[in-house]
Amino acid sequence: MLNIAVFVSGRGSNFKAVYDKVSKEKIKFCAVVSDRTDCHAINFAREKSIPVFFIGKKNQGEFVDFNFLIDQLKVLSVNFILLAGFLKKIPDQFVDTFENRIINIHPALLPSFGGKGMYGLNVHKAVLDSHVQESGATIHFVDKIYDNGKIILQKKVDISDAVSAEEIASRVLKIEHEILPFVVDKFADNKIKIENDKVIILD
Ligand code: GRF
User: Ligand 1: which atom is nearest the Cα of residue 172?
Assistant: First the structure.
């Protein structure tokens, strides 16, 4: 069983796409973690009765710190972490705890247009300003450096006629909603391997 914790900071459309599309026989949504208490993604988690954790710098009020969170996720038998629009940096200790079990979706073709500050519309504005003809989405493992882990899957989209960052965002988002559930299902089927430092997706 893939026991997932989904990390979110906002709208949560990728979380919803994954929740709606993946095989519930093999995947359990054990927790949703957010740095914000008032986002759409949290409302969705509550509708689906998924336990919610708010992450902060220390255990205070409704917030917990990463050490406490690790313990809670262990209690819930979480074995897979999906970052779907989570804006905070994941601490090194958390990365070590879930080594090769944390993935992220990025709304551009990494290694271009990634790194610190490259989130939300910033990414699509940079893409627009660079006049590239294609953008896309990248799903990658999370390591200790922003947007740096091994690439699992990328899909491109033609943006040669796009006139705004918003338009690029919307084309890319459509792709994100296709490839993220696909990849999560592949993890549930144990069909994602790392061989010679390269990620292989088996049929
Ligand atoms: C997506 O574009 C994702 O690639 C990026 O943050 C955005 C989150 O959107 N990491 P949503 O919250 O899933 O709607």
Answer: 2
Nearest Cα neighbor of 33 from 182, 62, 178, 60 is 62
Res 186: pLDDT: 98
82: exposed, middle or buried (Cβ count in 10 Å: 0-12, 13-18, 19+)? buried
Cα(203) to centroid(ligand 1), Å: 27
Say how many domains are in the chain.
Answer: 1
CATH number for 169: 3.40.50.170
The pLDDT tens digits for 105-144 are: 999 999 999 999 999 999 999 999 999 999 999 999 999 9
Domain span at residue 143 reads 2-201
pLDDT at 19: 98
Ligand 1 is surrounded, with C-beta below 6 A, by 10-15, 84-85, 105-107, 173, 176
Q: How far does the centroid of ligand 1 lie from the alpha carbon of residue 85, in Å?
A: 4
